[in-house]
Amino acid sequence: MSAGTNQTGGTGSGLVKWIDSRLPIFSYMQKEYAEFEAPKNFNWFWNFGAILTFMLVLMIMTGIFLAMQYTPHTGLAFDSVERIMRDVNFGWLLRYLHANGATFFFIAVYIHMFRGMYYGSYKGPRELLWMLGVVILLLMMATAFMGYVLPWGQMSFWGATVITNLFSAIPLVGDSIVTLLWGGFSVDNPTLNRFFALHYLFPFLIFGVVILHVIALHVTGSNNPLGVDPKGPQDTVPFHPYYTMKDSVGLAVFVTIMAAFVFFAPNFFGEPENYLEAAPLVTPAHIVPEWYFLPFFAILRSIDFNIWFIDAKLAGVLAMFGAIGVLFILPWLDKSPVRSAKFRPMYKWFFWILLLDCIILGYVGGKPTDDAVFAGAAWFKIIHLGYITTFWYFFHFLILLPLLGIFERPKPLPKSISEAVLGGGTSGAAATAKPMEKA
Amino acid sequence: MGIVCNLRRAAAATGLIAAAALVSTSAFAAGDAKHAEEQDWHFEGIFGTVDKASAQRGLQVYLEVCSGCHSLKQVAYRNLSDLGFTEAEIKAIAADYDVTDGPNDEGEMFERPAIASDAFVSPFPNNEAAQASNNGALPPDLSLQVKAHAGGANYIYALLSGYEDAPVGKDVPNGLSYNPFFPGELIAMPAPLAEDGVEYSDGTVASVDQMAWDVVNFMQWAAEPEMEQRKKMGFKVVLFLIILSAILYAAKRKMWSNLDH
Q1: Does the residue B189 lie in any domain?
Q2: Is A68 exposed, middle or buried, given 0-12, 13-18 or 19+ CB atoms closer than 10 A?
Q3: Do B10 and A281 touch (CB under 8 A)?
Q4: Nearest-CA distance from B252 to chain A in Å?
Q5: Window 180-219 of A, Cβ < 8 Å to B
Q6: Residue B100 falls within a domain, yes or no?
Q7: What does pTM read for this prediction?
Q8: Measured between alpha carbons, how far is B156 from B193 in angstroms, rounded to an integer?
């Protein structure tokens, strides 16, 4: 082969060209992250992809350094974490970044998902992109759950006990699955060991699926707040420097907020009881998972009745996994051809109701089911609120979304992004003639 | 081996019961206790620091009162330099306690006085011994108690200074004490502090409230020895990030100003 085969790696020194003509990583980066054309009308909610990438890297890096000091043994784990907090240089910073990092990772992923739902980013041709995102969410949940077990505090142990026991609800194979998860007949040292090994592995699986997520994104291109496809170069800007710049702003603000918690209220999102070492014979009064699992936990507990021949416990587990399952098929549940809620007068309201519903579910998940919701009305208990909000969650996805696609009358869509952005005066053709890209 | 197996089975069974309780009905709430009042602590706020004089007195309360039953396993004597103790003072404090070391050249374990690098010596060799000496109740390790309760320092201060006579009609079983701040109101720990229970070398009057205050300041430091470094660093980091965000935002505005968007 002659040197002339290098068609793409036009820039760079001789060495870069030499490498690029054999392994086109430079031209790939140039094409996918620099020249990549993105709609020019992103709002600040489009920052969260970059923020999530940063968080994943931060979690992996702090995690690797923590793993160098951590001991996965029931007799030593709790003390090894305290040793990190007290005797390892900046160990407290690593651990608080990692613990609060998990919280902020989930804050970012939930904003990212609700953004996708508001602007219809899951609709064709982005179905696979969305589904890969749901896979990432599932992997994140598994990783976070196993990570929470590692400090071997009271909530680590009892949270692990409660959640792993859920699998015993599965008919026929349930008990075998639980034994396999535990590596024995209760949550014990083998459990801690395998959770540590898997907690180390899963972030790299996430990394792999993130790569697929980005590949899929770069095939379809990004959605945008209007939900109409870019019609030409007048509707887009190169990703670099415009969105690398804008993402930097959003990331800096996000990290500022996270840092405020890490340094001034590092245990705000944590459960105090996890600072007590695990005691298998002392059951805490109130076992709660981490805040980011509370809505799912609420759905699990809300099914406390048998459904036909399905026993309540199994039904609860199915409902909990079903809550994520409906997200998988969301692209086919939502029948409306219009993406953005901006042009969907009814869906817009139901979106906000769903968001509120999820927040209430989170509240329900954190409270004992027998508590009264309002001080004055003892008959209205948390469990009742759980019934209502759980029902609404599934009603929204399974009934409302398909019906809205039929009965909702969307507002007229703008012809193009430029037309909407510039006030609607110019037609698409006129806009094309204008020199949009001065940079 | 049989006992271990039984224990494991018991643990698995309690786990199943707990899971069932959570999934089907509810966890019971231990929330009938009196709410601890907010106190004005020196360590609070983003510029909060350890009240060293109080924490030093708190160490004295811990050593003379609490350490009879409660361990402080996560803290080493050398850490006391944070509170302003000199190297000689730390060596003297440590030397009052014996630790088991070894094995020596002959393969024997031996006792020696503790040194600065040792962790605080525990009153009991293990949890079982601690329970055997305390009516079956386990006095918790004090290293992390401030972080391990939702009420934090306020709760522990209220608990230590809040012992009172049980109200009429409240049945207090033998071996338990009444404390309105403790979940369930019946606590295995008898009122630990009594007027002038210690003699402070700095002349501070050792009232129950004062001793409770001092020992909570000490326990707060023991739970978060990194606090001062963390907050100092945090102030700089957050200030830097705010300025960075502002600069990036200005740069973004400038860059985007030549686009119609």
Answers
A1: yes
A2: exposed
A3: yes
A4: 6
A5: 184-188
A6: no
A7: 0.90
A8: 13
